[in-house]
Design brief:
Blueprint: H1 2-27, H2 34-41, H3 45-51, H4 55-59, H5 63-75, H6 83-96, H7 107-115, H8 117-142, H9 147-172, H10 177-199
Protein name: TetR/AcrR family transcriptional regulator
Keywords: DNA-binding, Transcription, Transcription regulation
InterPro entries: Homeodomain-like_sf (IPR009057), HTH-type_TetR-like_transc_reg (IPR050109), HTH_TetR (IPR001647)
Length: about 200
């Protein structure tokens, strides 16, 4: 019974998110209200805000994974694996699997981020939260606070941020799926390689 309830909740969340995405693309982010989305999805406005407290999170509906994913990857890295190596391995594996979270979207959806100040502000906040979560994980595993884990987190999260913008650029250009993920993988290898001199052995588990 509990599993059925959880499945229904997930289906409702996905439906709301899907309807919102279509409306944002058609009408614009600022022009679309929570009430509009609720009506189109056939739910109450309160139901929408229960799942998505902020309208921006209807757009960035996977923000929790973006915020916590890198910290989890680092926490679960293999013995002897550095934080840099773990994050690079995960990102390249996601490219190989054509993971949706890497940001291959329609050109119209990609342009919405550029055109909306609210979405750009929320995106900066998401990556700030990602950096903080990563720093906390590195601090916890080192057993001490200090400059090093925070600098490492800033650099590693910075790569994730740059690659998101690279994914948006490729989406806006209308690249097909194979070109998109092949190019994004190459960009990831280049970006992570730039951190090698400083972080190649940092936080090796």
């Amino acid at each position: 019974m509990a599993q059925l309830r959880e499945l229904k909740k997930q289906q409702t969340r996905q439906k709301i998110s899907h309807v919102a995405t279509l409306m944002f693309i058609e009408h614009g982010f600022e022009q679309t209200t929570i009430a509009d989305i609720a009506k189109a999805a056939g739910v109450s406005k309160m139901t929408v805000t229960n799942y998505f407290p902020r309208k921006e999170d209807l757009f960035f509906d996977a923000y929790e994974e973006v915020v916590g994913g890198p910290a989890r990857t680092v926490a679960e890295r293999a013995p002897g694996e550095s934080a840099l190596a773990a994050l690079r391995r995960k990102y390249l594996a996601d490219c190989e699997e054509h993971a949706p979270l890497l940001g291959r979207v329609s050109p119209g959806f990609a342009r919405l981020v550029v055109e909306s100040p609210a979405l750009r502000a929320r995106l900066r906040e998401i990556y700030d939260q990602q950096e903080q979560a990563l720093a906390e994980t590195l601090i916890e595993q080192a057993g001490a606070d200090g400059v090093a884990p925070r600098v490492a987190a800033a650099q590693l999260s910075g790569v994730q941020r740059v690659l998101f913008h690279e994914a948006r650029r490729r989406s806006e250009a209308g690249q097909d799926e194979e070109e998109f993920f092949t190019g994004l993988g190459a960009a990831a290898r280049e970006a992570f390689a730039l951190l090698e001199p400083a972080l190649a052995g940092y936080a090796a588990k």
